[in-house]
UniProtKB/TrEMBL annotation:
One of its GO terms (cellular component) is cytosol. Pfam families: THF_DHG_CYH, THF_DHG_CYH_C. Residues 6-120 form the Tetrahydrofolate dehydrogenase/cyclohydrolase catalytic domain. Homodimer. It catalyses: (6R)-5,10-methylene-5,6,7,8-tetrahydrofolate + NADP(+) = (6R)-5,10-methenyltetrahydrofolate + NADPH; (6R)-5,10-methenyltetrahydrofolate + H2O = (6R)-10-formyltetrahydrofolate + H(+). SUPFAM superfamilies: Aminoacid dehydrogenase-like, N-terminal domain, NAD(P)-binding Rossmann-fold domains. Pathway: One-carbon metabolism; tetrahydrofolate interconversion. HAMAP family: THF_DHG_CYH. Catalyzes the oxidation of 5,10-methylenetetrahydrofolate to 5,10-methenyltetrahydrofolate and then the hydrolysis of 5,10-methenyltetrahydrofolate to 10-formyltetrahydrofolate. This is Bifunctional protein FolD. It comes from Jeotgalicoccus saudimassiliensis. NADP(+) binds at G164, R165, S166. Its EC number is 1.5.1.5, 3.5.4.9. It comes from the Bacteria.
């Protein structure tokens, strides 16, 4: 079998076209969605992500700005920046790019973002809302994974292995899949014979950042493979899955780059639009 490619760039393009028309509608009512991204320091990959988010927001008609703070900015200063954005009525979505430098407590900063502006869905209140089935901002990469899976059919009754248990990908993805009536196994670094077990699963979502972890020989015939891994090797972005061998076995597969990545950025825009809408409705 040669798998069908889940082309994240194409899927994201269609999704963003839908968002753009919603932005236009809001603008005709005098509401201009605004995304403000905070970055501390000069990490090349982080700067590039932040610029992509900013550009993508502007491209669909949103307002967007970047607050770029020095590498040696104190925790107090970062918290003061967040507080100022919390109180700025023009700002709908606040995103603080992580990781933050060592002198800044990441949890403190994420907790300081007003929950109604936390478009990453990383604040404890929004995580709690997600797990209790309330209206919230769902983290962007998990939302992107679910959007890709929508293009493969129903998940009801399927067995899914989620590899990696991070707070921002593995755990929320497991929750969202469960909500779609899939049967989910959350695997991690202490799972015994992990790779050997993968042959039992209809769907594999890998989010660990280990290039070549999963090959075609490890997969069930016809499996759906979503590769969330993004590791830079020799200046190239690579996933967790050996694409060439996996595509011969899978029914659907995401490439890296061009799979989950474009959907993550799209969902930042999706959540910013929701923030603007909800802010207006809840006034
Ligand atoms: N760093 C890597 N991915 C992300 C993300 O989705 N959001 C934020 N804020 N920082 C990140």
């Amino acid at each position: 079998m040669t798998a069908e490619l889940l082309n994240g760039r194409e899927i994201a393009k269609d999704y963003r076209a839908g968002l753009q028309s919603e932005v236009e509608k809001l603008k005709s009512q005098g509401i201009v969605p605004n995304l403000t991204v905070v970055i501390v320091g000069n990490d090349g990959a982080s700067l590039s992500y932040v610029r992509s988010k900013n550009k993508a927001a502007e491209k669909i008609g949103m307002e967007s700005s970047i607050v770029h703070l020095d590498e040696d900015t104190s925790e107090e200063e970062v918290l003061a920046t967040v507080e100022k954005l919390n109180n700025d009525d023009k700002v709908n979505g606040i995103l603080v790019q992580v990781p933050l430098p060592d002198q800044v407590d990441e949890n403190k900063v994420l907790e300081a973002i007003a929950p109604h502006k936390d478009v990453d869905g990383f604040s404890p209140i929004n995580i709690g809302r997600l797990y209790t089935g309330q209206r919230t901002f769902v983290p962007c990469t998990p939302l992107g994974v679910m959007e890709l899976l929508k293009h493969t059919g129903s998940l009801e009754g399927k067995t899914v292995a989620v590899v990696g248990r991070s707070h921002i990908v593995g755990q929320p993805v497991a929750k969202l899949l469960t909500d779609q009536n899939a049967t989910v196994t959350l695997m991690h670094s202490r799972t015994q014979n992990m790779v050997e077990q993968l042959k039992n699963f209809d769907v594999v979502v890998s989010a660990v950042g280990k290039p070549g972890l999963i090959t075609g020989a490890d997969l069930k015939e016809g499996a759906i493979v979503i590769d969330v891994g993004n590791t830079v090797v020799d200046e190239k972005l690579v996933g967790d899955v050996d694409f060439e061998s996996a595509k011969e076995v899978a029914s659907y597969i995401t490439p890296v780059p061009g799979g989950v990545g474009p959907l993550t950025i799209t969902m930042v825009l999706n959540n910013t639009l929701l923030a603007a809408k909800w802010h207006n409705e809840d006034k």
